[in-house]
Each structure stands twice: as structure tokens, then as C-alpha cells.
Amino acid sequence: MPSCKPVLLEAVGVPDGHTLASYRSRGGYAPVEKLLPEKQPADVVEMVKASGLRGRGGAGFSTGLKWTFLPKDHPGPIYLCINADESEPGTFNNRILMEDDPHQVLEGIILSAFATRASTAYIYLRYEYPRSWHRLQAAIDEAYAAGLLGKNITGSGFSLDVYLHRGAAAYICGEETGLIESLEGKRAWPRIKPPFPAIEGLFRKPTVVNNIETMACVAQIARRGVDWFKSIGVPADPNNPRDPGSYGPKLYCLSGHVERPGCYEAPLGITARQLIEEFGGGVWKGRKAKAVIPGGISMGLMTEAELDTPLDFAGPGKVGCLGLGTAAVVVIDETVSIVDFLHNSCRFFAHESCGQCTPCREGTSWSLRMLERIKAGKGRLKDLDLLAEIGATMGMMPGSTICGLADGAAWPIKNAIKKFRGEFEDYIKQTNPHGWMVTDPVPALQIVGAH
Amino acid sequence: MPTVIVDGKEIEIGADERLNCIEAARRAGKEIPHYCWHPGLSVVASCRMCLIETGQRDTATGKVTMMPKLVPGCQTPVKDGTVIVTESQLVKDSRARVEEALLIDHPIDCPICDKAGECLLQDYHFQHGQAERRADLHPFTSRRRDVGPTVTLFVDRCIMCTRCVRFTREVSGTAELMVTSRGAKEEIDVFPGHPLDNKLSGNVVDLCPVGALGDKDFLYQQRVWFMKREANVCGGCSAGCSIHTEHNQDTVYRLKPRENPHVNTWWICDDGRYGWHHIHDAARLVGATRAASTGGRGTPAFDDVEWHDVAQRLRDDLRAVGRLAVAVSPMLTVEEAWMLCAVARSIDPEAFLAVGHVPREGDDQTFPGGFTIRAEKCPNRRGVEAVVALFDPAVPGWEALVEHVRQGRADAAWVTAAYPGAWIDDDTAAAFGDLKCLVVQDLFDSPLARLATWRLPAAGFAERAGTWVNVGHRAQCFEQAVRPPAGVWPEGRLSWNMLGRRGLYDPAAVRRQIAESSAVFAALAGDVPATGIDLRIGQLA
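^ inputs. structure came back:
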């Protein structure tokens, strides 16, 4: 184990670490009591901006910058939505934070609401997290009783109400405008942008949507200072003007074929190999890794040779992945068939596509059906070209969908076909020795019962 | 004026116009295919058929910067210098892929689909699709689901454009339709126990770009390519919605709304949409008949009269009796009403002219989207009132006429009716019992028709030509869509003959004559646009 002292995960393993008393004993809520009466909201925005904090939800957009997009002098209300709909496969860092240190999250929410002048915050919680639900609600109740939430917090004149909303188990609710629609009581179909939520969001009012881990980081920045935060991570690449750097600690969710899976706190920029070796105790049973998902299934795949890529916001993109995502690192060992992996990935996205945009709705289900056919021994080499075409044309980046779900569905297809094409070809040739070379359209009756 | 460049062609748009790329491209003669976008509904940009390339031309340098990715034309507003590219390879490929994706789950049952021939999925597939189907075919399914009294849903034909869902939320305000399930398993459905049942429900069938929503009234009645369509005006109420009457061989099969921003925008109500069946009713009065003898009134004995003799014999009968009272039905066109008044005054220069019975039902009903169904169930009260006012500024109404007859101030009455249903009770009809001569022109038998000396058939709404003036003073001219049944002369034809005018009845000639002789109708002097003209404009000038 490396000697990096965990900050965000400080409460893990502490008896009753989730209680207010325990959190206060670690120095919690001191920043709230100090900053709120003394500082202006703009000061807090400046602090977060200066820290270089980038959103931990997946896209990695600068948190402070996002806050400045809110209209100036808006009569209100402005809403703060906290995205705790942690549905990306392999991701569980928000859960750890909510279960073991909910007050750290709440403190971040209070500071962020103060900075954005929001007097109402909604926490949109994933349905499958009953324990987080109980712990967060208990923490909210404790905070209200202690005067840390509600009217006139710590005598500063600032008031904030926090509502905990439990979703109904849909991946799409993690998309920020899907989350907003769902909060409004509608079907979680992401909205077309512009207008962005900062201009017109929840109940058509300016809204900021932030992740749970981002909130925890805000709390820590306020407690430990900007310099502490900037001392961790990777500075901006001077050769790339669009790279603002990746600062601060990050919670990496390590799972899959490793000896010690778990949620580990490490500085941004740690390489996948370091993470697996130092934290995870290596690939399980002494095997070799075949591929690693850098940050949730929708980010694509890194091969064994690419494991030295730093897991910061810029790193995975350099090897063809979509990005860092949620930093949920899933290790796939050499015994796993990449066809099975892709089939599973497609099954997930075909199930979770909200069905609004044609390319995603039909593309995800078509790719799943194609993989089902390949697995049923009726694959053709031509299918790989079709899959690659679906992967290349579906998503927000080519402009064919409203939200990024399709990009996330496309990336595993794109990466798997590109990086493991040989394995796919071998699989198809072996399982369909007489038909792999056929290029005709598939006659309808042949595939009946193939699934 | 802002300039928009569509495929290299520069067009100018109005300074205050808020157009999207689809509308702007249409001005330049380029059609951008689209399913989910409809000018009357909110923008969802979900079908992705209208993806195009856009860019911005710098006003100073003239340099064009293109967007790096495709954008939906429906969602992208144009401004000065917007560059729209609708025919690049990137755009074509994208359209072909969307078309291919939509057909993956589509049953392709065009031979048994009512929409075939007017289906956007078909049309776009031929224009933008690819010849070969690369997808794994699906076993054929075409589940049918009853969603309401007027509409049936073919679940698997749906392409999830959600136009119908948005219509029930935004225009009818009833929100019966919804999307259930997720991803490719999505379906349109209604909540159990809450069927699609509102006065605007038929519009969802028009909105459906494919054959998913079928109109039960029209389903399997006629192939669309056999039908001809005539621009027409709905006669169901005083709103005067612009419609297309679709017919084949003098049989009407359905009515469709015709876009008219001044009247009905894109919609019509179900009362109007299904309100044409009476014109093909077997019980309609057919053939000119006269009571068997002068004393035989009130008996069922009627003699047939050859139509070409009607004009002269009717004139002789009425002239012989004396004081005449005429009810000018608000179902008649302006031209028919004017000629009827002229005929009446030529027989009896003192003839009492009144506006006929104006049927009313309940109150005006306005929907959240702004569409209004009028309580007044006749299309031309304003027009007929204006015509009668030219002859009698007091403009007496139907009650005045009944009172006039009851007091014995008339010896003969000529009542035009042409109402689609029962309209007069026995008591009112009895007031006409003592007249020496009663002419009734109606679609159906009635207590009044049974008292008639002359019982003449009337034309149904699609069988007329002329002008109706709606509640908002908008005059709309239309041609005859179907011929009336054998043995029926429309009212205008009879009046035309009785005025001794030569040739076939020509509403346009009558219209010109009216426009020249009265300030109220001056606006009708020239060509009247398809969307009609506001009569008050002529009066202001």
C-alpha cells in the first residue's frame, strides 16, 4: 500500500464515522462556520475556481467555471442538484462517501449552495442504495437539528433546505438533464441543449448539477485550502491549451479480476498499472490483465500495453478511450473472451438507452442483437464492420444524439473492435466455419431462435 | 435583412422572423426530411432525420466557419450569415443510417397499411434510404392496440417521434398518450382506463408520419392514391376550419385539416372530421316534389316535378299567393344567399327576408393549444347576415320570421335549411300550417317538410361551391368537392335558373357581382387566397 494518507475517505473504518460528532472531531463544519458569515458567495466561487477542481461525475468540467455560468443578479430561485444516481457499472465511490461520511458531502453542499446562491438543494439518489438513503437522511436530520441546515445557518443569514430524492433505478437519470426531468416528475428524457441547466434547468430555473464526490472535494478545499488541493495531481500540459490540469485526490473504484478490489483514494494521475499493483495487489491468481476499463464501462478499453497511461482527465483519451469517466477501473484478465465482454456491455446499453433519439435507441439494440447472433455461432466478418460503423456514428460527438449515453455505448464497441479485432475474427471463424465470410443480408428465418 | 445561405444559395429572411433551419431551407426550395418536428408542437430533436451541417459566415471577412459535427435542423435557429448544407455526403450518410435504424423494428407491412402512399417513412426511404437492408430481419409482428374510440394503434409501425404524445399534452391538453418502456422496447400507450377520448383526437392520426395511428373511421375504406382532394371549408361550426375533402367517385372518405394560420392552424375537431357522413345518408331528400293537389297539403302524397320545370312552376305558385317570407339558411354560401334574396324580391318586392335558424350547442370550447370549437353549429351566419342586411338593414332572425308567419303577415314562405340533423320541432312547424304555399329546401324529412307544398332537396356541405364567412369575419371560397346525388340541385343552381341566368351556375361570377355592389363584400372582388380573406380589411380601405 502506498503511503498516501486518505482525505476524502478519512472516515472509512472510523467507528461511527458517519455521525455529526465524529465529523466535527475531524475538523468538519469549521469552514462553514467560518466562511459563511465572513465571505461572499463570489469568494467561494473564486476559491473553487482557483483550486482547479474538475467535476468528478465523469465529464471533468471545471466546477468553479460551471458555477459562473449562472445568470448574474438572478431574482431566484436557483437550484443545486446533487447527482448521486451512481449507475455507471463498476462505480461505487459516491456510495462509500454517502455511507461512511455523509456530513462531508453535506458540508460541500452547504458551501456550494452558498457559492451559487441556491436556497434549495436536491440530492438525486440512486434507488439501489438503501443504506446511503438512511445514512444521508439521518445526516440531514442531524444537520437541521444542529442549525447547519434550514434558516439562517450558523447566524450567517444564509438559508438552505436539502431534499433527498430517491430515483427509480434508471441509468439515464445520471445524465444531468435527464436527472432534472426526473426530479420534475417526468420521464427522464434528456433535454436538448442549449439552454444549458445553468440558464434554464430544474423547474425552468437556473440550476447547477454536481456530483457527490465533487461536493466532498469542495468541503476539503474549504478546510485544507487551495494550495493543498493543487499540490496533488497533474498540472496542466503546457503544450495543450485546452488542458486545465487534473488536481486533487480522486477515488478510484477498483474491481474485476484483482486481488483486493475496493475504493481507493489516490492522487489524480496514478497509472492504471500502479493502481492495480499497489492498491489492488495485482491481477488475481497471478494472471495477466487482458484489458482494463479506465473509468466505467462507457469509457472504453485499455489494453495491457496501455496500462501505464496516467488516470487523469487527459490520460485515457490519449489511448483512444472516451475519458477518465468515474474512474471506475475494472480489470479483465486473460481468460475472458472480449466477445463476452462486448456482449455484456451492449446488453447494458440496449437496456438503459432511454429511447429518445433514433440512432441510440436502434443502434444499441441492433448491436446487441448482432452480438447475440455472433455468440450463437452465426457471426460474419461483415458484422464487425457494421459494429464499427455503429460505434463511429452513434453519439453526441458525431452529433447524432441529444445526450452522451450513446457515446458511452459506442466507445466499448469502438475500442473493442479496434483493439481486439483479431480475437473477434478468430471467434467468428471458429464458431461459424461455414458462414463467416458471407456478406449477404441475413435472411429473416435463419435468426429465429438464435437468441 | 438577415441572409441565410442554403447550399450556396443566399436567401433573405425577415428581420424579426424566428426560423429554424428546416423552415429557412424550405424558403430556398430545399426540403430537409424530418419526422418529430412539427411547427405546431414543441421541439424535441429526437428523430435525428433532419441532421445537417451548419456554419457561420463572418460578416466582415466573408469567411465561413463550419460546425465540426452534425446538428438537428429543427433545433437550430438561423440568423444572419448562417450557412446550411443539406446535401453533403456526411448528411446523406446520416439520413441513410437513421432511415435504416427506423426500419430495423418496423414490420414493413406496407401492403396492408393504410398509410401506404402518404407515409413519410416510405417517401424518405426512397429519397434517402439505402437499397440493401443490412440489419438482421425481425419476424413480422404488427400488434394492434385500441387506444380510444376514434384511433387504433399499430404498435410496431411506430417510429417514436412522439408527435401524438406532445399533441395531447400541448394542444388538446388531455395528455392521454404516453411512452412506456425504454429503449427499443418503447411503445406508445394510454393509461389503463383513460383512453384517447377528446374532441381533437383525430389529429394524432394526421400527425403520425407513419402508419402507427389509424383512424377507425377511415381504416381499410380506401387506398389513399385512389382519392382526390379538394380544398374545402368545414361546415360543422362557425369556426370555418380549412379542410381537404378527400373523395373518390363522388364519395367522401375522409376530411383532413388544411393548414391555415388565420383559422385552424393545423388542426380540426372530431365533430368536423367525422361530421360528413350525413351527406351519404340514404334518407336524404332526393328529387323535386310538389304536393299532389292544392288542397293536398299535409298529406303524404307528393308528385315528382321535372327539375327543369321547377323554376317556372315555383315562381308561378309563389307569385299567385302573394306576400312572401323567406328564411335564408346560414348553411348556404354567400352567393346562394344573395341569389335567393334576389329571387324572393323578384317574386315579391316586399318579401320578408330573414336569417334562417342558427343551431347552437352548449358553449364555445377552447383547448389549451388555442383551438376553439364554436357553439354555433353553422358555417355562415356572418355571411348570410351581411347578405340579408343588403336587402333589409334590420336583419330579422329566424324567431322574427316564425312570429311574422304566426301573425299571418305572410301568405307564402320559403324555408331553406340544409342542416345535417333534426332542427325544428312540431310546435314551430305548426306556425307554418296555415300558409297558402310553403317551400322547404332541406337535406332530410322534418315536421316542416311534411307540411310543405314544395319539398326540395338541399345540397350537403361538400356539394356546394361558394363563400362562407366564419365567426372571425374571414371569407373563404371553395369549389364543389363531390357532385350531389342524382335528383338534387344545389340551392345555388335553382336560384341561378330562377333568376333566368344563362349557362351553368357560376359562383365566381355571382361573387364578383356581390363584391362590386356592396362595400361589405368588396374584399372578394379579386382573387381570394386559399387561406381566405378578412372582410373587414375591405371595409377599412
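Chain B has a mean pLDDT of 93. The two ends of chain B are 29 Å apart (CA to CA).
thumbs up if we can close this ticket
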